[in-house]
């Protein structure tokens, strides 16, 4: 089926591989891309061959040499132009994103602007990669410490934020002076291609960003084993992250891994309940619950549990499920049938363990097979798959607690450590709980924590490294120490 979408700039739709500044569409096997709202085929995308992968590395190495001839200020100007082009094309980029991913158009536009903010931020950080001079231990010596680009990088990005997750990786990489080969998720390749198209228009050298498509396992193995790739960055499941980590060992690559989460959200008895309810709704139902930082386990103090659940039920009833192109839609479809099956199984497991289904719990068949209703479940035990697994669906699971020590123990009782949230107005409690939670990111009295100027990432089984802030560009640099004898 031909892709049917009206854009101001139709050239943003690219269905080929991008290698060495050229779009490759011919003589390649193809795979289909579907609109999750309608289950209709959008288009077919070219699949990279082994020769394509090798060509991508060769062109990236040459482009990186050329890119390093640019001054930091020159690189900054090009990255800033890239940012400006994203902003100018934001409406089109949002339409592409909604078409292939399903999220509401307003939310898609928000993702585009969020992704753009990384190009704006790292355009400035490109000029701030400072070295050091260290006092020498011997007379007539000078000691310098310099920071260099780590080398050609590879990125594997997910389908839930197909624009922003690539932007968070590409912007600091090119600002640091690196070239990148990106492999976007097969469900959402068009957003990555559109972002790369604008990079070429901004003036990056051919080959500085290559975008390839195809079989994840084959491409992942290639990235891990090829010694020319010096850094691998991945956002996705912990299971795949572990596999990549193990398989990169033989080539000693630098890595950054943003993996799974099991975020707790705690509402203490002294919280502002209305603020807490608003924070829960924003944290849980963004992208229909398909985010790694969604609140996964909601802990409410038993003294206010009934009140909070009642208010949550009222707010959930207001959420409009539908096609992302409908202006009134607040929740779109899940990404595919596998996601629906997973969501259903989590609900069934909870109900067989005495949980109370308050609202939702199934698909809305009138809308389509992938439209899972916003769901609220009151849980009486933590011995549930809902408690242990990453939900990745619009299912809000509530648990009770009586003491700070009890809920901190429950919150930390997971191998994951990405995001966490809590609501309280007691300053002593705020400091204590923030220190006690074993997570890389903590939101206090807010359900939204992501921004371009802060370090995004987790601890424990949620990954390595950080994206955003000045820490993000450090992931693409390596340290060189120079000891000069002046005798």
TrEMBL record:
GO terms for molecular function: succinate-semialdehyde dehydrogenase (NAD+) activity. The active site is at 258. Coiled coil: none annotated. GO terms for biological process: gamma-aminobutyric acid catabolic process. Pfam families: Aldedh. Its EC number is 1.2.1.16. InterPro entries: Ald_DH/histidinol_DH (IPR016161), Ald_DH_C (IPR016163), Ald_DH_CS_CYS (IPR016160), Ald_DH_CS_GLU (IPR029510), Ald_DH_N (IPR016162), Aldehyde_DH_dom (IPR015590), Aldehyde_DH_Superfamily (IPR050740). It comes from the Bacteria. Residues 23-482 form the Aldehyde dehydrogenase domain. Belongs to the aldehyde dehydrogenase family. This is Succinate-semialdehyde dehydrogenase (NADP(+)).
């Amino acid at each position: 089926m031909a892709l049917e979408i009206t854009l101001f700039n139709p050239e943003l739709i690219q269905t080929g591989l991008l290698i060495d500044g050229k779009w490759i569409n011919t003589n390649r096997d193809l795979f289909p891309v579907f609109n999750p709202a309608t289950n209709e085929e959008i288009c077919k995308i070219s699949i990279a061959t082994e020769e394509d992968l090798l060509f991508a590395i060769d062109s990236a190495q040459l482009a990186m040499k050329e890119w390093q001839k640019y001054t930091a200020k020159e690189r900054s100007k090009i990255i800033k132009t890239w940012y400006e082009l994203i902003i100018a094309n934001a409406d089109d980029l949002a339409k592409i994103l909604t078409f292939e991913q399903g999220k509401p158009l307003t939310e898609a536009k928000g993702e585009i602007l969020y992704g753009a903010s990384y190009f704006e931020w790292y355009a400035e950080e490109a000029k701030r990669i400072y070295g050091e001079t260290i006092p020498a231990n011997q007379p007539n010596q000078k000691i310098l410490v310099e920071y260099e680009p780590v080398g050609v990088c590879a990125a594997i990005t997910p389908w839930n934020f197909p624009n922003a997750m690539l932007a968070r990786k590409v912007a600091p990489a090119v600002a640091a002076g690196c070239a990148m080969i990106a492999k976007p998720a097969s469900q959402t390749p068009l957003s990555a291609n559109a972002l790369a198209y604008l990079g070429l228009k901004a003036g990056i050298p051919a080959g500085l960003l290559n975008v390839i498509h195809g079989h994840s396992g084959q491409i992942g193995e290639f990235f891990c084993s090829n010694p020319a790739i010096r850094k691998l960055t991945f956002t996705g499941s912990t299971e795949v992250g572990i596999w990549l980590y193990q398989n990169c060992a033989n080539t000693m690559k630098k890595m950054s891994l943003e993996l799974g989460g099991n975020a707790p959200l705690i509402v203490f008895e002294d919280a502002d309940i209305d603020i807490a309810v608003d924070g829960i709704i924003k944290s849980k139902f963004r992208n229909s619950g398909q985010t790694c930082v969604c609140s996964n386990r909601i802990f409410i103090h038993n003294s206010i549990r009934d009140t909070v659940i009642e208010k949550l039920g009222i707010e959930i009833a207001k959420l409009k499920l539908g096609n992302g192109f409908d202006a009134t839609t607040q929740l779109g479809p899940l990404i595919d049938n596998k996601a629906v099956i997973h969501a259903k199984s989590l609900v069934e497991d909870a109900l067989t363990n005495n949980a109370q289904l308050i609202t939702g719990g199934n698909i809305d068949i009138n809308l389509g097979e992938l439209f899972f209703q916003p769901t609220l479940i009151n849980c009486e035990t933590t011995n549930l798959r809902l408690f242990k697994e990453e939900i990745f669906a619009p299912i809000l699971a509530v648990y009770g607690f009586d003491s700070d020590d009890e809920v901190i123990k429950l919150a930390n009782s997971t191998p994951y450590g990405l995001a966490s949230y809590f609501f309280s107005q007691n300053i002593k409690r705020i400091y204590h709980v923030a220190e006690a939670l074993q997570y890389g990111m903590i939101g206090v009295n807010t359900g939204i924590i992501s921004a371009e100027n802060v370090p995004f990432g987790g601890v424990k089984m949620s990954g390595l490294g950080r994206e955003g802030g000045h820490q993000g560009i450090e992931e693409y640099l390596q340290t060189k120490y120079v000891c000069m004898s002046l005798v």
